[in-house]
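Researcher: We're teaching a course module on how sequence relates to structure. For the next exercise, students receive a sequence and then see the predicted structure as tokens, so they can try to spot secondary structure elements on their own. Here is the exercise chain.
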Amino acid sequence: MNWTMRQDHILSRALTMSQYQLFARRTRLVFIASGFLHEHPMLVSSSSSAIFAAIGRSVILHSVSTLCLTTNVFTLRQTKELAMKIAVIYNRESQKVINLFGIANREKYGLVAIQRIVNALKQGGHQVVALEGDKDLIDKLEEFMPRVLKGERPGMAFNLSYGIQGQARYTHVPGILEMVGLPYVGSGPLAHSLALDKVVAKMIFVQHGIPTPQFAVLKNAGFDMPSLSYPMIVKPKNESVSFGIKIVHNEKELREAADVIFKEFGQHVLVEQYIDGKEINVGLLGNSAHMEAFPPAELEFGDGPKIYTLEDKKRQSNRTVEVVCPARIDKETAKRAQQIAMDAFEALGCNDCARIDMRMDKEGNLYVLEINSLPSLGEHGTYVAAADVAGLDFTALVNRLVEVAASRYFGTPHPPDLAKKTSDPKQALFGYLSGRRDQLEQSIEAWTRITSRSDDTVGIRAASAKFGQIMHDVGLKTVKELTDSRDVWTWETQKGIDGGTLLIVHTDIPVTPSLGAEHFRRDPEWLYGEGIGTSRGPLIQVEYALRAMKSVKKLRLLRAGVLCYADEGNDCEQSADMIAKACERASNVIVLTPGNLGGKVITKRRGQRKYQLTLEGKSLRLGQSGRDLEVMRVLYNKLNEISSLTNKKARVGVSAIDIRTEAYPFRLPHRAHTKILVSYPNAATAKKIETEMRSILANEGIQWDLVLVSDRPPFIERKENKALFNRFAEIGKEWDVHIEAEASLWPSVAGLVPAETPVLCGVGPEARDLYTTREAVSRMSLIQRTLLLSEFLLHTMEM
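Model: And here is the predicted structure for the students to work with:
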């Protein structure tokens, strides 16, 4: 298909001085001619008045009343300021459906056309992916653009999908997008269904006084002849792209054409009065008061039928159909065609874009044939050609479609972009983090590739060195007196750690050595990987919260420190003293252990003691009788008594783990070792439980030894902690992030914090299946809790 441009519709149009001055400040001088931007390097260094004079003589623009020069000049710059994630959804070859059922789709975009659209969006600054509109679409969309934060603009779908199969195929993908709550370019399911049903659409046109050819509906092969005069147009009731369309001149041709449609398409037949005259197309862009009508385009047919056939669209008809744009009609008729097109668009409730096909008879009367609610963006389409005449080249057109859809969803011509520079540091923090969601996930993926289990000294050294380098890159300095370079590392901001906030994380992954490795993967809601919840998520959270503070130039004014230890899996045996010393210097402490599901953070934890119990007796043969007791029988009896010390009401738990025995060949065990875990609410209770265990062990004639291996103090709920929690929860409310207090059975380093220092635990991202091969962190919580932590740090500066 060829399209021509009439030179008498190109006119010179000068910029005003104020327009030029705004333009010159922001970009190099460009000339706009025939929809293309050309740099003019000779004028870059010229004076304003000389350049302005040159522009007044040289700039030309296709004339169209509804588009303005400044919109075309700045459309790409503005679009880049509104950059977002965009999924281009199409149907090409995929048959990923549960069953192949119903009428198959025959409309497809070519791969070249799809890539052209993707490239145009990328030039607009968007992050783009192309997806097939099949049964996997929801999962792919959720993986590409997870749920958004309050105030964060969601991603958008650029819908090119004609559907795979069945009825009302245009509605399938928009219906899915409506269901999952994802904004998209183009009309909704209702408008598409009305536009596809040509009979219903024509009834609506008649009801709204929109001119359309007389018509009749044929329901089966034995139909009565319609009361229309020949020639007539015959077409399927619910198809598009000229499928099945034909001109008939008598009853025989009518019945033959109708039979083909009944058999091939399995649907009713629409018969229209043929209008002999020009075929006019009007492209529309926008919505309601901001509707933009392109100059009408005229189809000029060569030999053969004076209708646009499927063969013409596929360029298989052996004739040339030229698109003449603007159409060879007078200005008054052009305005009338544009108004009729906009009326039809509104009558069917279309959104963003459409192409309205009309015929004009010899008397100049216009008749709407149909609305294409999903106009082709193919290179040779009339919609693209008319847009170019209107001053929008292909890249500008595609990005303008995104702009008008964003305007419709977000309620302003240019939706507020919180990622732009702002004087409000809270919004600036939000903008920094929300614009780096992908970067956060890429960073956490990189961390999961570093193995640093608690028994892996080499891995721990590598992980700790990596985190140390990150802290120095952010701008923190090492606190030498709180760093031993083996188990504990501490850094502080320029203002220092004293009287500030201490953030605590760990680099070791506390899992059993026999546990299989877990490789990184993601699904729409979760990120999986070894230690991703216990260690890697909090490390990323601290890094990006500090980077966000640095981006708003607040980090150098912040009193804060970061402590990283590497023996969580060994009950902090080596790091406990230094952690306690660091906490003494801070005014409040945030322990970034993983949060529990449901927005939980931890305000109270039980303490935990670990004991090593050894029982030793005589080496006995199997079945040997006498007064000597078997070690294992004694052990089982003692462990049963010790376990009975568990008291849910008193918040005490006692249990044995990891029994090992020693025996000579062919003899019963003469020595047994076991570890006993005691969960307790306070030191007095722990002391009481130990006394009772020793009492139980003392009542048997066998050697025993009970050694306290480790003691992790309880994290006791205090009013100072309550105030800290309330502050964190209030920040959560600002962003619609639910924060709720919870107690935990498991200990943490929060128990090492002095009683007078406020502390909050479980502030890391929400995680599940900890210490297993299914450990996962919530994708949404990762960004949410990083945002809350950064704003909390900002809030501490105001205290």
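Model: If you want an answer key for the exercise: The mean pLDDT is 84. The longest helix spans residues 532-551.
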